[in-house]
What we know:
By secondary structure, the chain is an alpha+beta fold. The protein has 2 domains: 6-15 and 73-153, Roll (PH-domain like), CATH 2.30.29; 20-70. Helix content is 45%, strand content 26%. The protein has 3 helices and 7 strands; from the N terminus they run βααββββββα. It has helices at residues 20-43, 47-70, 132-153; strands spanning 6-12, 74-80, 84-89, 95-100, 106-109, 115-119, 122-126. The chain has a 4-stranded antiparallel β-sheet with strand order 1-2-3-4, covered by helices on one side.
Amino acid sequence: MTDSAVHFDAVLHPHRSLTPRSFLIVMILIGTLSFIGGVVFLLMGAWPVFGFFGLDAALVYIAFKRNFRDGERYETVRLTDDTLEIHRVEPDGSDTCQSFQPYWTKVLVDEEGCLVLRSHGRSVEIGRFLVDYEKESFRAALDTALRRLKPARI
């Protein structure tokens, strides 16, 4: 990292609409409803259904836990005088860092709706987890920062 002035600095996170407390409440509700439903079928003599209700609750739990784990990913985008740096951290802790020369970098949302940085034949997708309006907003903000930096470099 250089001592250049920072012109743009953003951290992108996936949206998390469920807090850990809300998750606990949802799981208690699902577990209670599954147990009650299972007991009703058990009393009717359909005892195998009881196990399926438990399996449903377990699968919902696993899906939420995976979703929370995926929510640990983030990306940092930093624009300085000399470089545009993208630092991506995955849920497993692995990270990658890519740098672009800001003068030649273009930021766009392609025809498939992906937010892409392109320069000198290289491209990198950023913000995969953002929704369309967030991608467009981020593209506009980063593009503005890049345009402001370019006249200063000429």
